[in-house]
Protein backbone atom coordinates (compact mmCIF):
# COMPACT_ATOMS: atom_id res chain seq x y z
CA UNK A 1 0.00 0.00 0.00
CA UNK A 2 1.03 3.65 -0.61
CA UNK A 3 0.40 6.30 1.99
CA UNK A 4 0.46 10.03 1.24
CA UNK A 5 0.27 12.53 4.07
CA UNK A 6 -1.03 16.13 3.72
CA UNK A 7 -0.83 17.64 7.19
CA UNK A 8 -2.94 15.43 9.42
CA UNK A 9 -4.69 13.66 6.53
CA UNK A 10 -3.64 10.30 5.16
CA UNK A 11 -4.52 8.94 1.71
CA UNK A 12 -4.13 5.19 1.16
CA UNK A 13 -3.93 3.66 -2.38
CA UNK A 14 -3.11 0.18 -3.68
CA UNK A 15 0.62 0.08 -4.32
CA UNK A 16 0.52 -1.36 -7.82
CA UNK A 17 3.13 -0.72 -10.53
CA UNK A 18 0.54 1.04 -12.59
CA UNK A 19 -0.35 3.42 -9.80
CA UNK A 20 3.27 3.97 -8.93
CA UNK A 21 4.39 4.79 -12.49
CA UNK A 22 1.39 6.62 -13.91
CA UNK A 23 -0.58 8.02 -11.01
CA UNK A 24 1.68 8.09 -8.02
CA UNK A 25 4.40 10.19 -9.64
CA UNK A 26 1.94 12.72 -11.03
CA UNK A 27 0.00 12.91 -7.77
CA UNK A 28 3.07 13.33 -5.60
CA UNK A 29 4.67 15.95 -7.89
CA UNK A 30 1.47 17.96 -8.22
CA UNK A 31 0.76 18.11 -4.49
CA UNK A 32 3.94 19.99 -3.61
CA UNK A 33 4.10 19.53 0.15
CA UNK A 34 2.74 15.98 0.13
CA UNK A 35 5.02 13.41 1.80
CA UNK A 36 4.66 10.16 -0.11
CA UNK A 37 6.02 6.75 0.64
CA UNK A 38 5.31 3.42 -0.99
CA UNK A 39 5.59 0.10 0.63
CA UNK A 40 7.81 -1.59 -1.98
CA UNK A 41 11.37 -2.82 -2.01
CA UNK A 42 13.71 0.24 -1.72
CA UNK A 43 16.13 -0.97 -4.44
CA UNK A 44 13.37 -1.00 -7.07
CA UNK A 45 12.46 2.67 -6.40
CA UNK A 46 16.10 3.69 -6.53
CA UNK A 47 16.66 1.93 -9.86
CA UNK A 48 13.57 3.52 -11.36
CA UNK A 49 14.70 6.97 -10.18
CA UNK A 50 18.11 6.42 -11.74
CA UNK A 51 16.43 5.62 -15.06
CA UNK A 52 14.62 8.98 -14.97
CA UNK A 53 17.79 10.84 -14.05
CA UNK A 54 19.74 9.25 -16.91
CA UNK A 55 16.88 9.93 -19.37
CA UNK A 56 16.66 13.62 -18.39
CA UNK A 57 20.45 13.97 -18.63
CA UNK A 58 20.49 12.45 -22.12
CA UNK A 59 17.70 14.76 -23.32
CA UNK A 60 19.53 17.76 -21.85
CA UNK A 61 22.82 16.83 -23.51
CA UNK A 62 21.06 16.33 -26.88
CA UNK A 63 19.34 19.75 -26.70
CA UNK A 64 22.60 21.47 -25.72
CA UNK A 65 24.51 19.75 -28.56
CA UNK A 66 21.96 20.82 -31.21
CA UNK A 67 21.89 24.42 -29.96
CA UNK A 68 25.69 24.71 -29.66
CA UNK A 69 26.28 23.15 -33.11
CA UNK A 70 23.95 25.62 -34.83
CA UNK A 71 25.67 28.49 -33.03
CA UNK A 72 29.15 27.45 -34.19
CA UNK A 73 28.32 26.37 -37.75
CA UNK A 74 28.63 29.81 -39.47
CA UNK A 75 31.90 30.51 -37.64
CA UNK A 76 33.31 27.10 -38.62
CA UNK A 77 32.48 27.64 -42.30
CA UNK A 78 34.00 31.12 -42.19
CA UNK A 79 37.22 29.80 -40.65
CA UNK A 80 37.53 27.07 -43.26
CA UNK A 81 37.19 29.58 -46.08
CA UNK A 82 39.31 32.28 -44.45
CA UNK A 83 41.87 30.32 -42.44
CA UNK A 84 44.63 32.85 -43.23
CA UNK A 85 42.69 35.92 -42.04
CA UNK A 86 41.38 37.20 -38.76
CA UNK A 87 37.76 38.09 -38.11
CA UNK A 88 37.01 41.78 -38.68
CA UNK A 89 34.60 43.70 -36.46
CA UNK A 90 32.96 44.93 -39.70
CA UNK A 91 32.67 41.46 -41.29
CA UNK A 92 28.89 41.38 -40.85
CA UNK A 93 28.61 44.77 -42.58
CA UNK A 94 30.81 44.32 -45.65
CA UNK A 95 28.13 42.74 -47.82
CA UNK A 96 26.11 45.97 -47.84
CA UNK A 97 28.98 47.89 -49.48
CA UNK A 98 29.34 45.65 -52.52
CA UNK A 99 26.95 45.26 -55.45
CA UNK A 100 26.38 42.42 -57.88
CA UNK A 101 28.64 43.37 -60.74
CA UNK A 102 29.96 42.04 -63.09
CA UNK A 103 26.71 40.26 -63.88
CA UNK A 104 24.78 39.52 -67.06
CA UNK A 105 21.95 42.04 -66.93
CA UNK A 106 19.48 42.23 -69.81
CA UNK A 107 17.64 45.15 -71.40
CA UNK A 108 13.89 44.67 -71.29
CA UNK A 109 13.26 47.99 -73.08
CA UNK A 110 15.89 48.94 -75.64
CA UNK A 111 16.74 51.11 -78.63
CA UNK A 112 19.20 48.69 -80.26
CA UNK A 113 19.74 50.47 -83.59
CA UNK A 114 18.86 54.13 -83.07
CA UNK A 115 22.24 55.40 -81.90
CA UNK A 116 24.13 53.55 -84.63
CA UNK A 117 21.80 54.92 -87.30
CA UNK A 118 21.80 58.52 -86.06
CA UNK A 119 25.57 58.63 -85.41
CA UNK A 120 25.41 61.48 -82.86
CA UNK A 121 28.55 63.37 -81.95
CA UNK A 122 27.56 63.27 -78.26
CA UNK A 123 25.27 60.87 -76.37
CA UNK A 124 23.77 62.10 -73.10
CA UNK A 125 22.74 59.36 -70.66
CA UNK A 126 20.34 60.29 -67.85
CA UNK A 127 19.82 57.73 -65.06
CA UNK A 128 16.35 58.16 -63.59
CA UNK A 129 13.93 56.15 -61.48
CA UNK A 130 11.32 54.27 -63.56
CA UNK A 131 8.42 55.93 -61.74
CA UNK A 132 9.81 59.46 -62.28
CA UNK A 133 8.03 60.27 -65.54
CA UNK A 134 7.82 63.93 -64.52
CA UNK A 135 11.61 64.35 -64.52
CA UNK A 136 11.89 62.80 -67.97
CA UNK A 137 9.20 65.09 -69.41
CA UNK A 138 10.84 68.18 -67.87
CA UNK A 139 14.19 67.33 -69.45
CA UNK A 140 12.56 66.60 -72.81
CA UNK A 141 11.06 70.09 -72.95
CA UNK A 142 14.13 71.95 -71.62
CA UNK A 143 17.81 71.18 -72.22
CA UNK A 144 17.00 67.69 -73.56
CA UNK A 145 15.36 69.35 -76.56
CA UNK A 146 18.71 70.75 -77.77
CA UNK A 147 19.52 68.15 -80.42
CA UNK A 148 21.57 70.17 -82.93
CA UNK A 149 24.21 72.37 -81.27
CA UNK A 150 27.10 74.14 -83.04
CA UNK A 151 26.48 71.89 -86.01
CA UNK A 152 26.81 68.68 -83.96
CA UNK A 153 24.08 66.13 -83.30
CA UNK A 154 23.27 65.34 -79.68
CA UNK A 155 21.03 62.45 -78.58
CA UNK A 156 19.51 61.72 -75.18
CA UNK A 157 18.54 58.47 -73.44
CA UNK A 158 16.95 57.78 -70.06
CA UNK A 159 18.30 54.76 -68.22
CA UNK A 160 15.95 52.87 -65.89
CA UNK A 161 16.11 49.77 -63.74
CA UNK A 162 13.13 47.75 -62.52
CA UNK A 163 10.79 49.32 -60.02
CA UNK A 164 10.42 46.16 -57.95
CA UNK A 165 12.02 42.77 -57.46
CA UNK A 166 10.68 40.15 -59.82
CA UNK A 167 11.79 37.23 -61.91
CA UNK A 168 13.71 37.64 -65.14
CA UNK A 169 10.58 37.22 -67.25
CA UNK A 170 8.56 39.95 -65.55
CA UNK A 171 7.14 42.21 -68.30
CA UNK A 172 7.95 45.93 -68.18
CA UNK A 173 5.32 48.40 -67.09
CA UNK A 174 2.83 49.22 -69.83
CA UNK A 175 3.22 52.94 -69.25
CA UNK A 176 6.98 52.70 -69.76
CA UNK A 177 6.43 50.75 -72.99
CA UNK A 178 4.04 53.42 -74.22
CA UNK A 179 6.51 56.16 -73.27
CA UNK A 180 9.24 54.31 -75.14
CA UNK A 181 7.13 54.03 -78.28
CA UNK A 182 6.25 57.73 -78.09
CA UNK A 183 9.72 59.17 -77.52
CA UNK A 184 12.19 56.43 -78.46
CA UNK A 185 14.56 57.35 -75.62
CA UNK A 186 13.91 54.74 -72.88
CA UNK A 187 16.43 52.08 -71.89
CA UNK A 188 15.35 49.73 -69.09
CA UNK A 189 17.44 46.92 -67.66
CA UNK A 190 16.41 44.11 -65.31
CA UNK A 191 18.32 45.15 -62.17
CA UNK A 192 16.47 46.59 -59.18
CA UNK A 193 16.48 50.39 -59.42
CA UNK A 194 17.73 51.71 -56.06
CA UNK A 195 20.36 54.02 -54.61
CA UNK A 196 22.54 51.09 -53.60
CA UNK A 197 22.52 49.86 -57.21
CA UNK A 198 23.72 53.07 -58.87
CA UNK A 199 27.04 51.41 -59.66
CA UNK A 200 25.17 48.68 -61.52
CA UNK A 201 23.20 51.35 -63.36
CA UNK A 202 26.38 53.11 -64.45
CA UNK A 203 28.07 49.93 -65.63
CA UNK A 204 24.97 48.87 -67.56
CA UNK A 205 25.05 52.33 -69.18
CA UNK A 206 28.66 51.72 -70.25
CA UNK A 207 27.74 48.29 -71.62
CA UNK A 208 25.00 49.85 -73.76
CA UNK A 209 27.27 52.60 -75.07
CA UNK A 210 30.06 50.16 -75.93
CA UNK A 211 27.74 48.06 -78.13
CA UNK A 212 25.14 50.53 -79.45
CA UNK A 213 27.04 53.79 -80.09
CA UNK A 214 30.26 52.75 -81.79
CA UNK A 215 30.13 55.72 -84.19
CA UNK A 216 29.81 58.43 -81.55
CA UNK A 217 32.73 60.51 -80.26
CA UNK A 218 31.70 61.37 -76.70
CA UNK A 219 29.15 60.51 -74.05
CA UNK A 220 27.99 62.19 -70.87
CA UNK A 221 26.36 60.81 -67.75
CA UNK A 222 24.23 63.43 -65.96
CA UNK A 223 21.79 63.27 -63.06
CA UNK A 224 18.14 64.09 -63.69
CA UNK A 225 18.13 66.96 -61.14
CA UNK A 226 20.90 68.89 -62.93
CA UNK A 227 20.83 71.84 -65.32
CA UNK A 228 22.87 71.20 -68.47
CA UNK A 229 24.18 73.93 -70.75
CA UNK A 230 24.51 71.87 -73.92
CA UNK A 231 26.08 74.71 -75.91
CA UNK A 232 28.99 75.02 -73.46
CA UNK A 233 29.33 71.25 -73.31
CA UNK A 234 29.70 70.87 -77.09
CA UNK A 235 32.07 73.84 -77.24
CA UNK A 236 34.33 72.14 -74.67
CA UNK A 237 34.41 68.63 -76.16
CA UNK A 238 35.00 69.92 -79.69
CA UNK A 239 38.52 70.76 -78.46
CA UNK A 240 38.97 67.70 -76.21
CA UNK A 241 41.09 64.59 -76.85
CA UNK A 242 39.31 61.80 -78.71
CA UNK A 243 40.79 59.03 -76.55
CA UNK A 244 41.46 58.48 -72.85
CA UNK A 245 39.41 61.50 -71.87
CA UNK A 246 37.11 61.98 -68.88
CA UNK A 247 36.32 65.26 -67.18
CA UNK A 248 33.81 66.79 -64.80
CA UNK A 249 34.04 68.03 -61.24
CA UNK A 250 37.12 65.97 -60.41
CA UNK A 251 37.65 65.08 -56.75
CA UNK A 252 41.30 64.58 -55.82
CA UNK A 253 42.52 63.18 -52.49
CA UNK A 254 38.93 62.86 -51.27
CA UNK A 255 38.90 61.32 -47.79
CA UNK A 256 37.10 58.03 -47.22
CA UNK A 257 34.23 58.58 -44.79
CA UNK A 258 34.50 56.20 -41.83
CA UNK A 259 31.45 57.47 -39.95
CA UNK A 260 28.91 54.61 -40.00
CA UNK A 261 26.08 57.18 -40.02
CA UNK A 262 27.28 58.79 -43.24
CA UNK A 263 25.44 58.13 -46.50
CA UNK A 264 28.82 57.37 -48.12
CA UNK A 265 30.39 55.34 -45.33
CA UNK A 266 32.94 52.67 -46.27
CA UNK A 267 34.73 50.54 -43.69
CA UNK A 268 38.47 49.92 -43.82
CA UNK A 269 37.71 46.28 -44.65
CA UNK A 270 36.16 47.37 -47.92
CA UNK A 271 38.64 50.12 -48.81
CA UNK A 272 41.79 50.30 -46.71
CA UNK A 273 43.28 53.49 -48.16
CA UNK A 274 42.51 56.75 -46.30
CA UNK A 275 41.64 58.58 -49.54
CA UNK A 276 40.17 57.72 -52.94
CA UNK A 277 41.92 57.94 -56.28
CA UNK A 278 40.72 60.82 -58.48
CA UNK A 279 37.12 60.48 -59.66
CA UNK A 280 34.51 62.68 -61.34
CA UNK A 281 31.49 63.50 -59.20
CA UNK A 282 28.34 61.78 -60.36
CA UNK A 283 26.32 64.95 -60.99
CA UNK A 284 27.75 64.95 -64.51
CA UNK A 285 30.91 63.80 -66.30
CA UNK A 286 31.97 63.53 -69.94
CA UNK A 287 34.15 60.87 -71.54
CA UNK A 288 35.48 59.76 -74.89
CA UNK A 289 33.88 56.69 -76.41
CA UNK A 290 36.95 54.48 -76.08
CA UNK A 291 36.55 54.50 -72.28
CA UNK A 292 33.38 52.39 -71.81
CA UNK A 293 35.16 49.25 -73.01
CA UNK A 294 38.28 50.01 -70.94
CA UNK A 295 36.27 50.67 -67.77
CA UNK A 296 34.25 47.48 -68.29
CA UNK A 297 37.46 45.49 -68.66
CA UNK A 298 38.81 47.00 -65.45
CA UNK A 299 35.56 46.17 -63.63
CA UNK A 300 36.41 42.48 -63.92
CA UNK A 301 39.31 43.09 -61.55
CA UNK A 302 37.86 45.76 -59.22
CA UNK A 303 35.14 44.70 -56.79
CA UNK A 304 32.13 46.96 -57.23
CA UNK A 305 31.26 49.24 -54.31
CA UNK A 306 27.93 51.02 -54.05
CA UNK A 307 29.31 54.58 -54.48
CA UNK A 308 29.08 54.77 -58.27
CA UNK A 309 31.37 57.71 -59.06
CA UNK A 310 34.03 56.33 -56.72
CA UNK A 311 33.76 52.95 -58.40
CA UNK A 312 34.26 54.48 -61.86
CA UNK A 313 37.33 56.24 -60.46
CA UNK A 314 38.68 52.93 -59.12
CA UNK A 315 38.22 51.35 -62.54
CA UNK A 316 39.90 54.33 -64.23
CA UNK A 317 42.89 53.92 -61.92
CA UNK A 318 43.10 50.20 -62.67
CA UNK A 319 42.91 50.95 -66.40
CA UNK A 320 45.75 53.47 -66.03
CA UNK A 321 43.68 56.38 -67.39
CA UNK A 322 44.12 59.74 -65.60
CA UNK A 323 41.18 62.09 -65.27
CA UNK A 324 41.33 65.51 -66.92
CA UNK A 325 40.35 68.71 -65.13
CA UNK A 326 37.94 71.02 -67.00
CA UNK A 327 39.44 73.93 -68.95
CA UNK A 328 38.65 76.22 -65.99
CA UNK A 329 36.86 76.19 -62.66
CA UNK A 330 33.13 76.73 -62.40
CA UNK A 331 32.01 74.57 -65.31
CA UNK A 332 30.71 71.70 -63.15
CA UNK A 333 29.09 72.94 -59.93
CA UNK A 334 27.85 70.83 -57.02
CA UNK A 335 27.04 73.76 -54.68
CA UNK A 336 25.34 76.46 -56.78
CA UNK A 337 24.40 79.92 -55.49
CA UNK A 338 20.94 80.40 -54.05
CA UNK A 339 20.04 82.73 -56.90
CA UNK A 340 20.95 81.59 -60.42
CA UNK A 341 21.09 84.46 -62.87
CA UNK A 342 21.21 84.13 -66.62
CA UNK A 343 24.90 85.06 -66.49
CA UNK A 344 25.61 82.23 -64.07
CA UNK A 345 23.65 79.69 -66.13
CA UNK A 346 25.39 80.79 -69.32
CA UNK A 347 28.82 80.25 -67.71
CA UNK A 348 28.42 76.65 -66.50
CA UNK A 349 28.17 73.27 -68.18
CA UNK A 350 26.34 71.45 -65.38
CA UNK A 351 25.03 72.66 -62.05
CA UNK A 352 23.20 70.60 -59.45
CA UNK A 353 19.70 71.73 -58.44
CA UNK A 354 17.38 70.96 -55.54
CA UNK A 355 15.13 68.82 -57.73
CA UNK A 356 14.24 68.15 -61.35
CA UNK A 357 11.29 70.56 -61.02
CA UNK A 358 13.73 73.43 -60.55
CA UNK A 359 15.00 72.83 -64.10
CA UNK A 360 11.82 74.49 -65.40
CA UNK A 361 12.55 77.68 -63.49
CA UNK A 362 16.26 77.98 -64.32
CA UNK A 363 15.57 77.10 -67.97
CA UNK A 364 13.14 79.98 -68.18
CA UNK A 365 15.76 82.30 -66.67
CA UNK A 366 18.43 81.00 -69.03
CA UNK A 367 16.29 81.42 -72.14
CA UNK A 368 14.50 84.72 -71.40
CA UNK A 369 16.81 86.94 -69.39
CA UNK A 370 19.32 89.02 -71.38
CA UNK A 371 22.92 87.85 -71.31
CA UNK A 372 24.45 90.82 -73.07
CA UNK A 373 26.00 92.23 -69.90
CA UNK A 374 27.58 88.96 -68.77
UniProtKB/TrEMBL annotation:
EC number(s) on file: 2.4.1.-
Pathway info: Protein modification; protein glycosylation
Gene3D superfamilies linked to this entry: 3.90.550.50
Compartments, as annotated in UniProt: Golgi apparatus membrane
Pfam families: Galactosyl_T
InterPro entries hit by this protein: Glyco_trans_31
Family: Belongs to the glycosyltransferase 31 family.
Name of the featured protein: Hexosyltransferase
Protein source organism: Fundulus heteroclitus (Killifish)
Amino acid sequence: MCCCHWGAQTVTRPCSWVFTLRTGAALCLSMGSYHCKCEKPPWKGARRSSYYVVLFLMIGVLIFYIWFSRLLLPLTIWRVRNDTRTISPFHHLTSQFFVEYPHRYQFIVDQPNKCRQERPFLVVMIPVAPQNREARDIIRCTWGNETRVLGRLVSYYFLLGKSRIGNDTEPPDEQILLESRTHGDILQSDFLDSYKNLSIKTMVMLEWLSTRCLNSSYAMKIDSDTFLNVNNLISMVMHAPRRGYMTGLVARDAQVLRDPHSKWFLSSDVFAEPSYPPYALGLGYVFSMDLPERILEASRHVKAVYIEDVYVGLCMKHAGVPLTDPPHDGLFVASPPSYMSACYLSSVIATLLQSSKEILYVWEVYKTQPQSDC
